[in-house]
Amino acid sequence: MQIFEEWESEIRAYCRAAPTVFKTASNARQTDESGKTFIDFFAGAGVLNFGHNNPKMKQALIEYIQSDGVAHSLDMYTTAKRTFIQKFVDTILKPREMDYRLQFVGPTGTNAVEAALKLARRVTGRENIVAFHHAFHGMTLGALAATTNAHFRNAAGVPLNHVTHQSFGCETPCPGCQLGCGMGSLERMRALYSNSSSGLPKPAAFLVETIQAEGGVRVASAEWLKGVQDLAHELGALFIVDDIQAGCGRTGPYFSFEGMGLDPDIITLAKGIGGFGTPMAMNLNKPEHDKHWAPGEHTGTFRGQDLSFVAGTVALGYFDDPAFMADTQRKGKIIAQALEQIAAKYPGCSVRGRGMMQAIDFGDGNRSKAIATACFERGLLAAVCGSRGQVIKLIPPLTIPDEDLNEGLALFAEAVASQMETKS
Ligand SMILES: Cc1ncc(COP(=O)(O)O)c(C=O)c1O
């Protein structure tokens, strides 16, 4: 590991919590250079929804490369891109009666958020965005202005403005949180943005995660989300759902907000959409908003990643099968039940999540970091999140076999016990 420590930037982070050199990976398992195998409950921070080295995608990629398929194309037309767009329209949009234009952006979530904010400002002619306490939307300056965590914001070096943060609509309040989250935030926002003497300008958009994943797996209620959408439209603002981590099947259905009566103006997608871990980010813009873009106004050299289109097309195939989405719900219940059993043993712990994004809030960042280390030592990869790192989020690949899921949950219970029972 010396070469990394000697030559790589101080900025490196996840490798400090998982200090080994990984060599190979298959579905929900990663193996390091010493031959030790880890069950992966982290899945590349939600990128690897279909597992490491997904065999169907691997095959499609090998065939594509061997046939000299175009690998990089900016936003020129390619066969791979056409196939991806057709598949997305047929599998995702048409069955849901959704009409959107697909905007490919530089292949990171933060770039998708940047583009969404620009478009909302263009459409409304307004500057201010409403985002929410504990939000995470990315690291570039526009998206970072919407992100709340002080550690990340402090790195900006310039004022992060044109965003106002309001209380989120948690389904169940997080222990110790005094930020006024819940349904009450709606009326407060209505008053703030409707009263011309509040000192707050009318917003261009409300930017919301249905589940604040990095913020500590804080789950918004469907009622609150609908209320935010209605308020946005009452105020002439856009309703943007950032589905970068919770979308692409993570909670069961393709979009995290399905069945909630929502009709976002813009949906941001990234992480899992490229399928193989191949990078892609894409916004879905309502056509009436999309027409406000002029050609080439938001570019990005890597917005035409054809290997991502190839693997991403295979990934979309999973959503032709309702059984796949039902299985995500089933596995999500297995995780939630296991976590409830663990949390029941230790006062002050609580479980939150939906589908295959489940978490325990330990209320104490030092404790959860020690548990994540104990997981690593036992051969399980799991990462902390939340403003103080007090939450451990479990997001295994959706394709994880039951045996690995159960083994990983047993390792997790053991790791928790090792820290909670000996160190309290
Ligand atoms: C909801 C959400 N939005 C945006 C981002 C930023 O994505 P990226 O790291 O690819 O820029 C993330 C990353 O975790 C995210 O969870």
What this model shows, in words?
The model has no long low-confidence stretch (mean pLDDT 97). The protein contains 15 helices and 17 strands. It has 424 residues and is α/β, with parallel strands linked by helices. The chain starts with a helix and ends with a helix. α4 (55-66) runs antiparallel to α12 (306-317) and α14 (365-377) crosses α15 (402-420). It has helices spanning 2-7, 14-17, 43-46, 55-66, 79-93, 109-124, 141-146, 150-153, 184-194, 222-234, 287-290, 306-317, 322-345, 365-377, 402-420; strands spanning 22-26, 29-32, 37-40, 101-105, 129-132, 163-166, 205-208, 211-212, 218-219, 238-242, 266-269, 281-285, 350-354, 357-361, 380-381, 383-385, 391-394. The longest helix has 24 residues, at 322-345. 38% of the residues lie in helices and 16% in strands. It is globular. The protein has a 7-stranded mixed β-sheet. Strands 1-2-3-15 form a 4-stranded mixed β-sheet. Strands 13-14-17-16 form a 4-stranded antiparallel β-sheet, covered by helices on one side.
Name the features.
binds pyridoxal-5'-phosphate; 15 helices; alpha/beta; 16% strand; seven-stranded mixed beta sheet; 38% helix; 424 residues; four-stranded mixed beta sheet
Number of strands: 17
Helix content range of the residues, please? 25-40%
User: Strand sequence of the main sheet, in spatial order?
Assistant: 4-12-11-10-7-5-6
Measure the end-to-end span. 33 Å
The ligands bound in this entry are: pyridoxal-5'-phosphate
Structural class: alpha/beta
Globally, the shape reads: globular
Largest sheet: 7 strands, mixed
Tell me the radius of gyration: 21 Å
Strand proportion: 15-25%
Q: What is the arithmetic mean of pLDDT?
A: 97
